[in-house]
Amino acid sequence: MKLSCTKENLHQGLNVVSHLSARNANLPILNNVLLRADVGGLRLTATNLDLTVTCQVRGKVDQPGEYTLPARLFSDYVSLLPDERVDLDLLDSALAVVCGASKTKINGMSSGEFPLVPQITGGTKFMVPVAALETALSRTLFAVATSEARQVLTGVFMNFVGETKSLTVASTDSYRLGESVVSLKGDVMGERRVIIPARTMAELRRIIGVLKDGAEMPEELEVELTDNQVAFRYGSAELLSRTLDGVYPPYREIIPKSTKTEITVNKAAFIQAVKRTSLFSKVGLFDVRLEAKSGGKELQMSATDAGRGENLVVMNAEVTGEDNVVTLNYRYLLDGVSAMASEKITLKLIDGVNPCVVVPAEDGGQPYLYIVMPIRQ
Question: Using CA atoms, how far apart are residues 300 and 138, in angstroms rounded to an integer?
């Protein structure tokens, strides 16, 4: 194997794939990145057996071949090279790396030990706007369950609907729920539902962040679904993953169809008020009490802790409907509100025991719904 490429392209490719490699004492090969040089350039591949990431790097290949190197070591070394051409030459048991005056040899392992990379073909394909999907993930990933008690809740629910040309992205851990809707372009056939592990979606979001600023990057990414696998293809990168078995709970059934009180407040002021009040919430309960008076122009927020004291914040708000009081977990509340881009947010209440719905006052063309279950006193 012998080839040349720019440091910038090689560094970006390693940024895409090397993050997936982790220390694995039982299978040391999983710590490595596979380098495969052929007529198409240099293809980098990393896997942890659940996820596989590949990235194509443009370069001049003088001699095809393949080899594996320690992913973190190779990535760290390349990041410190000058912005010049990088020459890679496979010797007997090491890869020679030459860039300007820098010369080194990195020991690796035979590519024959690297796991077989799965291929996903013949599935149902959808084209999804990258910016909208990135926004949807930023609004939902934090609400995924971390407990394995209900495995389907450890994934992100995606529902492709051809009739409305939309993709609904949702997640819940039973205590809060986030749902974001993405508009799709082109032909969208039928309806397809899938649950994808949160780790996969977090990795996809990271890859998008690495690549999206490139001048030649497309505005859409491709999603291909088979019975139990999914492939995400964006520019030169491809992410392959299994999907989760099971049926996602019918979460829309808990969304209130009507509410008794609506409170509209400035988002930035609300976040600051919640943070100040949270300093006096009960340890482990994280409770903040919200109280609104019908026809009033203010929202009261309070918390009391026997050891630290108490705090009351009164802030300007537009309140319509009945008097209402609800106690919420401030951490869950802040997660959802912070994900909203609008200047104002609206809280919709029924009472102190039913779900509290939080929405941006202006959705910017990408609807978002966030629900927090109240703390029952």
Answer: 29
The mean pLDDT of 131-143, rounded to a whole number, is 97
For residue range 354-373, list pLDDT tens digits in order.
999 999 998 888 999 999 99
What predicted TM-score, i.e. pTM, was given to this entire model?
0.93
Q: How far apart are CA 68 and CA 77, in angstroms?
A: 15
With tokens 């080194």, the residue in question is 104
What tokens were used for 68? 């594996």
d(CA 107, CA 151): 40
Say how far apart CA 366 and CA 116 lie, in whole Å: 39
CA-CA-CA-CA torsion sign (261, 266, 269, 272): positive
Look up residue 75 and give its two tokens: 């990535």
Domains for the chain: give ranges and CATH numbers.
2-113 (3.10.150.10), 124-251 (3.10.150.10), 255-372 (3.10.150.10)
Beta bridge partners of 167: 160, 182
Task: Pick the closest to residue 328 from 296, 282, 359, 262 (CA basis).
Answer: 282
Q: What percent of the chain has pLDDT over 90?
A: 87
